[in-house]
Design a protein that fits this description.
The protein is mostly helical and about 100 residues long. The protein is built from five helices and no strands. α3 packs antiparallel against α4 and α3 packs parallel to α5.
Length: about 100
């Protein structure tokens, strides 16, 4: 596995970091079902894990075009961490595709 170039600011365990990396690699290889499986299992273990929630939002928005679900994940991030600029920007991006009755 490649050496990480970013700080582990969420104090994730090595196992969590490895699983996140696996999920990201699977997304890049378009193995979306496998990536989703890894991320949802991680979410069951920690429902407030910001990196997992962000990755799920990214996956649902970019790879599955499920913009409503992407927005839901980013909103969850913002409930936990209101100053998260990434989640705020991505929520705004995918919200544009939603139609409200």
């Amino acid at each position: 596995m490649s050496e990480r170039q970013w700080r582990n600011s969420y104090q994730l365990s090595q196992d969590q970091l490895n699983r996140l990396e696996e999920a990201e690699e699977r997304m890049e290889m378009l193995e979306i079902d496998k990536a989703e499986e890894v991320l949802l299992a991680m979410l069951e273990e920690d429902a407030n894990c910001i990196p997992v929630l962000n990755n799920l939002g990214h996956m649902y928005g970019r790879y599955l075009s499920d913009f409503e679900k992407a927005v839901e994940y980013y909103e969850k991030v913002l409930e936990i961490e209101p100053d998260n600029a990434w989640a705020r920007d991505e929520r705004r991006r995918y919200s544009r595709y939603l139609t409200y009755d």
